[in-house]
């Protein structure tokens, strides 16, 4: 297996662009003999004549023209890899806070793409309730946070607006029971709206599960022992939106707000904010010109 050398290809491209060995040598800060030697080795490796030296100026042969396009692509890819993996300007840590119930499906895609773009930057993902995340952001403990709120908060940017949906077990019947069994978090912002909607509809309810652990809620709901409420499209695969045929009341929409995404926060934070916006707008359909508080 024969391998092409990037340094040699760089010299070849320089000769093509500069119109000769002398000018290419000056451009590369090499001697003419060094550039000529690199070109000779390249031709010997390929077994082809790449330069037409019969005239007063050097021109590319047909093989040389063909190689030139490949060489440019290889050099560009080499430089991109070196920049991504060795650029010391993008090292460190960025802290991202996200409520438990909207981590999926967008955040894994965000983290995967960000790691590809900034492999030397560690993202510390903090999952908590919106109110706690806002407190952490105010104290400077998070660089970026997402919240689920009924309105856009001061200094926030709404990146998605999603309807709240009744969630149960696939094919489940817990929603038919009266009183309807609920599984809700103690500090869940959706809780007051869920209870108010049921009260307004005259549907009796009871708290079957009241916890701060989302896994407990998921287990109870997936076992068809209670119902829950989540933003549309954020439910796990083992849960399903309930089609009650209008029996259960409609729930209000909520905003997913981004704090800390304004410009001037540094290239790393701004890049992460951009990825967050792009992925959540796939869920929420908020226009590119988002609502800002």
Automatic annotation (TrEMBL):
PROSITE patterns: HTH_LYSR
GO molecular function: DNA binding; DNA-binding transcription factor activity
InterPro entries in the cross-refs: LTTR (IPR050176), LysR_HTH_N (IPR000847), LysR_subst-bd (IPR005119), WH-like_DNA-bd_sf (IPR036388), WH_DNA-bd_sf (IPR036390)
Start and end residues of each HTH lysR-type domain: 4-61
Any Pfam family matching the protein: LysR_substrate
Recorded superkingdom: Bacteria
Signal peptide residues on this chain, from the entry's feature table: none
UniProt entry keywords in alphabetical sequence: DNA-binding, Transcription, Transcription regulation
Keyword Transcription: yes
Keyword Transcription: yes
Family: Belongs to the LysR transcriptional regulatory family.
Protein name: Transcriptional regulator, LysR family
Organism: Ruegeria faecimaris
């Amino acid at each position: 297996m024969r391998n092409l050398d990037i340094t040699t290809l760089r010299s070849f491209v320089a000769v093509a662009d500069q119109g000769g060995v002398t000018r290419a040598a000056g451009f590369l800060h090499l001697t003419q003999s060094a550039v000529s030697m690199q070109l000779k080795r390249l031709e010997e490796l390929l077994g082809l004549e790449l330069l037409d030296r019969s005239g007063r100026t050097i021109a590319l042969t047909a093989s040389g023209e063909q190689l030139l396009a490949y060489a440019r692509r290889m050099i560009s890819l080499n430089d991109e890899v070196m920049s991504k993996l060795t650029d010391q300007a993008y090292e460190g840590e960025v802290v991202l806070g996200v409520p438990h119930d909207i981590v999926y499906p967008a955040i894994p895609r965000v983290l995967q793409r960000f790691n590809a773009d900034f492999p030397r930057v560690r993202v510390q993902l903090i999952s908590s309730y919106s109110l706690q995340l806002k407190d952490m952001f105010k104290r400077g403990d998070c660089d970026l946070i997402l919240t689920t709120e009924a309105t856009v908060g001061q200094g926030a940017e709404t990146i998605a607006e999603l309807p709240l949906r009744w969630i149960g077990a696939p094919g489940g019947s817990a929603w038919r029971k009266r009183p309807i069994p609920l599984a809700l978090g103690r500090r869940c912002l959706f809780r007051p709206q869920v209870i108010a909607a049921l009260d307004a509809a005259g549907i009796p309810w009871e708290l079957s599960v009241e916890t701060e652990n989302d896994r407990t809620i998921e287990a109870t709901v997936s076992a068809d022992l209670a119902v829950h409420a989540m933003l549309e499209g954020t439910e796990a695969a083992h849960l399903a939106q309930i089609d009650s045929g209008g029996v259960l009341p409609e729930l209000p929409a909520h905003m997913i707000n981004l704090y800390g995404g304004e410009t001037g926060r540094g290239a790393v934070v701004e890049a992460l904010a951009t990825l967050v916006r792009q992925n959540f707008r796939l869920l929420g359909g908020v226009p590119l010109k988002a609502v800002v508080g």
